[in-house]
Specification:
Layout: E1 3-7, H1 23-33, H2 47-66, E2 74-77, H3 81-88, H4 94-111, E3 116-122, H5 126-136, E4 143-150, E5 153-159, H6 160-172, E6 177-180, H7 193-203, E7 214-216, E8 223-224, H8 227-236, H9 244-253, E9 258-261, H10 267-275, E10 280-283, H11 284-287, H12 289-300
Parallel strand pairs: 1-2, 1-9, 2-7, 9-10
Antiparallel strand pairs: 3-5, 3-6, 4-5, 7-8
Helix pairs in contact: 1-4, 2-3, 2-4, 4-7, 5-6, 7-8
Length: 303
């Protein structure tokens, strides 16, 4: 059974999302980073809390699925989810992922502690949105096109004032939705080049192995089986747009039997079903791990 396992990024976090995570895993995060995971809304207002929480939830729950004999053929993580994908693909140890995500999130928060963030724009094509973004940016208040999630679904990153200018213009130009996101940093754009450079130095001290399945890269949208490509993706991803639209198209071309959205949330489920509504998608966040395993076992009997 060919399975495509997906890991979402920031914006999907919620209070209580670590309820099925073991105390041992939470203690591991605290031992390696000094961060006590309270799993509260207050903690998830910080970049560090969000990113560590997502990594912890995703790896913990995906490992429970792997323990039952389910091995993904393809993995893809959106933004911070790429670190979870690398762990599940066997490229990166959980311990190293925790330390790298802590470094990444801390540097992101320190680089832009306030007045910056991200927004989503839905209902415009790329060639319609790009001129709006270019018109809204200034040297003091920059804004960039960042994630490319679907042909008419994008995120933008930058100064809050510039984001609001894009939101206003995009809405006037026919966007069906243009809203600020619950992401306190301007991710996936050149504003994060300093964080990218620091991650490159940190990853020189980390062992990255060849993935045991196809790993989709955020910054190119392409799949790889090479350790050097995974390493480059973990570095470049923070300052480059996420090519999620390309990633899911190629995964579907690989004729997956089903997809597993580890969650939290249903964003990636909706995105892939918009491309192929016939694909069976098991959403772990919606079902819970035990019920997701029950459905997976039923599906496995078909193959």
């Amino acid at each position: 059974m060919k399975c495509f396992m997906m890991f979402p990024g920031q914006g999907s976090q919620f209070e209580g999302m670590l309820s099925e995570v073991s105390a041992e895993d939470k203690q591991l995060v605290e031992r390696l980073t000094g961060v006590h995971m309270t799993d509260t809304n207050e903690q998830y207002r910080s970049t560090i809390g969000i990113q560590l929480g997502l990594l912890l939830k995703q790896v913990s729950e995906a490992r429970k699925i792997l323990a039952e004999g389910f091995t993904p053929s393809n993995v893809a993580g959106h933004s911070i989810g790429s670190f979870s994908a690398a762990v599940i693909a066997g490229s990166l140890s959980f311990e190293d992922a925790i330390k790298l995500v802590h470094l990444r999130s801390r540097l992101m928060a320190e680089a832009y502690p306030d007045s910056y963030g991200m927004a989503a724009v839905v209902g415009l094509l790329k060639n319609e949105l790009v001129p709006i973004v270019e018109a809204a940016t200034t040297s003091e208040e920059p804004v960039y096109l960042s994630n490319e999630n679907a042909p008419q679904q994008f995120t933008i990153s930058g100064h809050i004032n510039a984001l609001n200018r894009v939101i206003k213009s995009a809405s006037q130009s026919g966007a069906s939705k243009a809203i600020l996101l619950a992401v306190p940093t301007p991710s996936h754009c050149p504003l994060m080049s300093g964080v990218r450079d620091a991650l490159a130095l940190a990853l020189e001290q980390v062992t990255i192995k060849a993935p045991n399945c196809l790993y989709f890269m955020n910054h190119t949208g392409l799949g790889t089986n090479l350790a050097k490509d995974v390493k480059k993706d973990l570095i470049e991803g923070v300052a480059s747009p996420v090519k999620w639209d390309i990633m899911t198209k190629i995964a579907l071309e690989n004729r997956m039997d089903l997809a597993v959205d580890i969650g939290p949330g249903e964003t990636l489920t909706k995105l892939i079903q918009a491309q192929d509504d016939s694909l069976k998608v098991i959403n772990v966040s919606k079902l819970g791990v035990d019920d997701a395993l029950y459905v997976l076992n039923k599906e496995r009997k078909k193959y």
